[in-house]
From TrEMBL:
Family designation: Belongs to the sodium:solute symporter (SSF) (TC 2.A.21) family.
Membrane topology: Multi-pass membrane protein
Protein name: Sodium:solute symporter
Cellular component GO terms held in the UniProt record: plasma membrane
Lineage: Bacteria, Pseudomonadati, Bacteroidota, Chitinophagia, Chitinophagales
InterPro entries according to UniProt: Na/Glc_symporter_sf, Na/solute_symporter, Na/solute_symporter_CS
Membrane-crossing segments per the record: 6-25, 46-69, 84-103, 124-149, 155-174, 186-203, 236-255, 276-302, 341-367, 388-408, 420-439, 446-463, 475-499, 530-548
Length: 549
């Protein structure tokens, strides 16, 4: 339980964020109050710093802070690959995908698929995107937030979730993307600040890097500081699995998921969208050091007797003592951070929770309005579209809360999310990637690949859960994502020859003629040029991987 002072700080933060969100969302230019472009895409006025911070905030949630710290305790820096590999997929977003998204003037990614392929692809992606936003971006985040708030305040998990849902839904539903992005920018700063505080305190408590290595060596756990594990590693995340499997998950998440990409779609122009995505790539370096590493410090502090985890002790199925590491982050906050600062750390957790939920709700509103409602009622007014979006966001909020008992069965929420993504991402990654690089990729082939690929992914997922001891069940989820992706690519190539492409004037402009064509765009001059930023980011990531190999 935290002090009254810290509780007041936390409540004050929530009130301030809601107030800013409502004020920003309702303070629009004259004549734009009911404009769908203003509500869903912030009038296409967003600049690169806001885009980059909003992308980061939408990605990082309370779930990431809690689960990445848990993974740092359990497996070391290994799951940091999900953060660093994101930098490479953000480069792909900036260089390969954003030019088509911005130039085609789409409001949603399903809209892009219709322009590149056909309406059936658009409908399928819209439905999948809404479901994935509800499950992955909202429900899992709610669950993590509820667990944390219950630990810190002693409030019933569902009561705390409903309160946060009400506050976040209020400014998101009323204010649209502008309110979401402005509050996400603030929340990114608060979240990063809070994470740095817990990192500094745990680092000082431990005494630095050398004491960490000594404790790890004493417990035969030096491999915890390695990001690249050998093939056959028990974790199932060898360097091969990471480099083959992550791009399948990452391209869907960062380049083809409406919740994430919508921030770039609201950019002032193509250069701002590219720079914003790359700026986020640089920010993604931080989570390994401020989200994952504190968990590794907690491991060392626990084994050196400086951190009391007795409250996490449980009894296993065979009667043996078991440590439930889900609560590592909250215990670090209460034991390592002085009063007053605890409130800031809780505010950081709430920042991650609220920002991801807000981003997902706005994307659901956009998809439901543009890709479903307007699809069947093309003459719908802007005012009606905004109303439909708001109603859809409210329904999604309620539905996500109803899913919580089912999702709470996962031991590790972070692994649960990635397990789900690994089975739904392959066909979507396939049709986007093949579509922008291969002119012969036909509409019918994409349609069948999305349908059949999704069915195969769901069937494999269910079989694995029913009987994990089969040959398929023993395949690590990262490699499973790669195998499913290869299957989808094979399907789309075969179907493209069976059903040859018949390009429209529009679709004929939405694929690259060569791998070098994306680099022909001039971009800004100086260090802000997308080519310069991409090169710097690649070099920096190479150096970091070399250090932590």
């Amino acid at each position: 339980m935290i002090s009254i002072t810290d509780t007041i700080i936390t409540i004050a933060y929530v009130v301030i964020i809601v107030t800013i969100g409502l004020w920003t969302g309702t303070r629009k230019k004259k004549g734009t109050a009911d404009s769908s472009g203003e509500y869903f895409l912030a009038g296409k006025t967003l600049r690169w710093p806001m885009i980059g911070l909003a992308l980061f905030a939408t990605n990082i949630s309370c779930l990431h802070l809690v689960s990445l710290a848990q993974s740092g305790f359990d497996t070391g820096l290994l799951n940091g690959n999900f953060e660093w590999m994101a930098a490479f997929t953000l480069i792909l977003l900036a260089v390969l995908f954003i030019p088509f998204y911005i130039r085609s003037g789409v409001s949603t990614l399903p809209d892009f698929l219709e322009k590149r392929y056909n309406k059936a692809c658009r409908d399928w992606l819209a439905i999948i995107s809404i479901l994935s936003a509800i499950i992955i971006h909202i429900a899992f985040s709610f669950l993590a937030g509820g667990i944390v708030l219950k630990t810190l305040f002693g409030v019933n998990i569902y009561t705390s979730i409903i309160v946060i849902a009400a506050f976040t839904g209020l400014y998101t539903v009323v204010g649209g993307l502008r309110a979401v992005v402005v509050t996400e920018t603030i929340q990114s700063i608060v979240l990063i600040t809070g994470a740095i505080i817990i990192t500094v305190f745990s680092w000082n408590k431990l005494g630095g890097w050398q004491p960490l290595k000594e404790v790890l060596a004493k417990n035969n756990a030096l491999d915890k500081i390695s990001m690249l594990r050998p093939i056959g590693d028990a974790s199932g995340m060898s360097w091969l699995a990471v480099f083959l499997g992550y791009p399948v998950l990452g391209i869907w998440y960062w380049c083809a998921d409406q919740t994430i990409v919508q921030r770039a779609l609201g950019a002032k122009d193509e250069n701002h969208a590219k720079a914003g995505a790359l700026f986020c790539g640089f920010i993604k370096i931080l989570p390994v050091f401020i989200f994952v590493m504190p968990g590794l410090f907690a491991y060392a502090l626990y084994h050196s007797g400086a951190l009391d985890l007795s409250s996490l002790q449980q009894t296993g199925a065979n009667g043996a003592p078991l440590l439930n590491t889900k609560g590592i982050y909250t215990l670090m906050i209460t034991q390592l951070v002085p009063k007053g600062l605890v409130g800031i750390l809780v505010a950081a957790l709430l920042s991650g929770l609220m920002s991801q939920i807000a981003g997902a709700l706005n994307s659901i509103a956009t998809l439901a309005s543009y890709d479903l409602y307007k699809r069947f009622k093309p003459g719908t007014s802007d005012k009606r579209l905004v109303s439909v979006g708001r109603i859809s966001a409210g329904i999604a909020l309620i539905f996500s809360i109803c899913l919580l008992p089912l999702l709470n069965q996962y031991q590790s929420l972070f692994e649960g999310i990635n397990d789900v993504i690994a089975h739904i991402a392959p066909p979507i990654t396939c049709v986007f990637l093949v579509g922008v690089f291969w002119g012969k990729a036909s509409a019918r082939s994409a349609q069948l690949t999305l349908w059949l690929g999704s069915v195969v992914g769901v069937v494999v997922f269910i079989l694995n859960k029913l009987n994990p001891d089969t040959v398929i069940g023993k395949i690590p989820f990262m490699m499973m994502a790669f195998y499913l992706f290869c299957t989808c690519v094979f399907m789309q190539i075969i179907f493209s020859y069976v059903y040859p492409a018949r390009h429209t004037a529009q679709s004929n402009k939405l694929y690259w003629r060569s791998v070098w064509e994306p680099l022909h765009a001039k971009g800004w001059s100086g260090i802000g040029n997308y080519k310069t930023l991409s090169t710097l980011l690649i070099v920096l990531m190479g150096v970091l991987y070399w250090i932590f190999k």
